[in-house]
Amino acid sequence: MSYRQKILKFKLIRSLSSLKITLVCLFLLYLLTLGGMVSQIHEGLYLAQQRYFESFVFLLFGFLPFPGAQAVMWVLLVNLVCVALTRFVYQWRRVGILIIHSGLLLFLVSAYLTLHQARESHLTLSEGQAANVSVAYHDWELAIWEAPLKEDSSLTDREVVSLDTNRFHPNQTIELVEQGFRISVKEFYKNCEAFSEQDSDAPLNASGITHLQSAALQKEPEKNKPGGVFSVTTGDQKTFDILLFGAETRPVTIKAGAKRYHAILRLKRFPLPFVLRLKDFRKEEHPGTTIARSFQSLVEVQPLEGKKFNAKAWREKLIAMNEPLRYKDFTLYQASFSVDESGQESSTLAVVQNAGRLMPYISTLVTVLGLVTHFSMMAVHSRKNTTNRKRHD
Amino acid sequence: MIKKNILAAVVCACLLIPGGIFKSAMISADEFCPLDSLKPRKVKSLDSLKRVPVLHQGRIKPFETYSKNILLQFSGREHYQKESACEWMARFLFAPRTTSDDKIFIVNHPEILEALKIGPQKNRRYSFRQLDSGFEKLKVLVDVSQGIAEKNQSIVDKELIRVYENLLLYIRLSGAFGFAIPHPDFTFPNNEIVNELQLPPHPGRSYSFFDILEKSEKLRQLAQSLDKKDQTNWSTEEKNAANIISTLLFWTDHYADCPLGIIPTKDQANEEWMSPMDTIIDNFFDPVYHDEVENLRDMTLNYWDGSQLEFDLAVRAFTDSVLKYASAKEQKAIGKIPLELFYNRLNLFLWAKFFYAVGFMLFLCSLLFEQNRMYRPALMATVLGFCPHLLAMMLRILIMSRPPVSNLFETFIFVGVISVVLGFILEAVNKNWLGLVVSNSCGLILLLIAGKFSTEGDTMQMLVAVLNSNFWLSTHVLAITTGYAGCCVAGIMGHIYILQALSNSVETKNRLEITHNNMLGILGFGLTMAFLGTTLGGIWADQSWGRFWGWDPKENGALMIVLWAAIVFHARIAKIVNPLGVAVGCILALMNVVWAWFGVNLLSVGLHSYGFTSGIANTLIAYFLMEVLFISISVFILGQKKIKF
What we know:
heterodimer, A: alpha+beta, 3 domains, 18 strands, 31% helix, B: mainly alpha, two-stranded antiparallel sheet, 27 helices, 67% helix, elongated, disordered N terminus
């Protein structure tokens, strides 16, 4: 008995390899694409993408459960594997089909990798400025660090504890052993408005905010301003409340024993394995118009091995539209720019970290190769058939 | 504005003078040439003017194309009554007053006319004089509309802004050659000033801004001592000089920043081109610029006199000088002007459309009469239609030095070419009219659609930064549009298949099978190219934004085509659909293409003007309804006939 016959004994595999499943899945994907496209008008790209494409199941029109694209793609993956085990004809005349579908398999894998692996952030630098952290677009963190005894601008490093706000839920308690205090979440809103009223019992806040009110999520997730009230219990069992709001620029100061700590809600920071300095930003327009012809950022890069940093060892690189800077898994793109009132130019670079970056390239190559092979073989085959038939006639 | 020249010195002297007494001189400076009682004699031929380079929307183009673009922008047409765009534009620039009653401004929305209290007209086109009567009101309304964020602007807001901007452009352009024409501001009651400034005698003592500016050295001498004296002690001479100087000052201010880029700067790095007046303000005493402006002045005067030879000589002298001082890059662009004029003159698309139509007619005749006699003429007509079509595309590639597809208009031309080629291949394989019908119908329909889109303005625009990449334009864009072409042809063949089935003649069965096989082949080709194009688009996006796929509407549209074609193939293999079903699937694939092509643009409102968008939405809906109707009726009839596929 061949492997195939053994496999065919499993009824589950046999029914999972049905072409009807493929058809239904393809059609669902088609509908989802259309739906996700049209709903972008009202919901915005981010929400539509989460709802239609990244979810397993969602409610259509608010009541009808509908499979999300992620679920459909998992089914397609299983279906494809089962078909490969049971139905594919492994012969030369079918080689095109085989190549096409292995390419598509790669696509599904790379989609999975990108969904769980890729991290997008950005980095805005004024001319002359340097940085080695990038900032998330819309993920927030609660950052806590020890307040320096006196303000010292030459201080370049500081240890920051950051807590991912996406996982916050009421009554959650986080123990900060090293700092010697405990934080528990009393209220947390992904988007809220801040108010200030006369209130002696108000929680501790640096900008005079006394309470927060939950607000609906924005169409553009960048516009959400999270906030929360947290209760802090220090080592000597003192308990007090602090209030943090995303739009604040000043941190709240927490006294724990002899030490003082700053806490703030901010967009997530990601360390980069290199320092980047913007030397010059250039913008060109087509003469006599406001149509942009090119944007370019001239930057200098220096890899960071441990904490070593050489003030002279910069490597120059020009980042332009369609010409990003690549460094290990990181890719930096020209995204936007701004000019302030004093004429100081700053450039925003999109930072993408994606280990599976090359996967779609390979998948594309394989699938297209398969398509070309298959359809040319079909064409030749059908030509032969017609000539043969004519001869018979 | 006014820089380091003698005029500036003169003007500076005057700035010390209290301005009050000169007001009388300022008011009379009119927007237009005052000689409205006179009609220019006009030169007969504008062939020399046609090839004058103009920098417009970032591109150096011949005056002829520029005129067409401007007139299209104003009126949505490429000619005004019996005048060509070039003739109208020449009349407008050299003798602006003669155009103030020309009905050239298209106003699409009746609400605007109501607001401006202008009676609606049948062809929706209005003259400057009509609209000017409501200009103040228009300005107030536009201020309100412009205060609204672009996303939230209504159709009326957008149309208001468009009309207002066109009027402003008209006003600003109308002063472009004012410097050359005698004007009341410089018309003197007696010979006093004429003699003082040593001006050449002139009928009516009427001079132009240019004539007076030539004498600025003399004026400077006269005005030298003005600031030291008290106004009351000024002599008549000095008063006259001060008056003229203040008028000159007013003119330089009033006509500055004219959007007619016709004089390149000598500075090689500066890509901006200047209008005559701005050149005068900045560099009048530089001999090169001075001569160029003088040439333009001569052009204007000779246009008025109707002296063809002198006009041509002035144009030639001007063009030679422009070419001489332009940078190497600009010279290259100017060098392409003859090619573009050649392209403009040939009217290639018209010929292509004509021959495609003839080919299609011959096919229809072949249905009625004997088939074989019509075959060769039809083949000839298709080839004759294809030649100008292809030639036009090649010329555009040469003129713009970039791949054939970079805007919506060009997609139709390119998809047309590919569809016709696919048709030829089908014909070469089958020799049974199928390919010819495909070629002629695709070519004709796509060129007709392209014609609609060419009224948007210049079809050879410059590209924004992210698109400005010849590599990706020639890989991704060509692949995806070729995919469009494949699916379009498959869709047309789907129609043909159903029509053949309906006709139900003796040899139907065999013929249907051929159509079916070919249709599958073409759909496969379409799927391959659409897939390649879509994923190449992803790679381009990865290169420029760092993500392969972002569920952007345009990406989704392309993905839908790919998914649909895949559905058709799988449904066929699963034996869920018969050949008739495949034909319907192909028609639906065509509808998908139409959706990805036009529908997606409708989602992101704001890319196109009102007239275009609402018109296209209705056409799109009508098209979809017709397809649905066609499919359901024919499937119903075929079901009744109980034909086995």
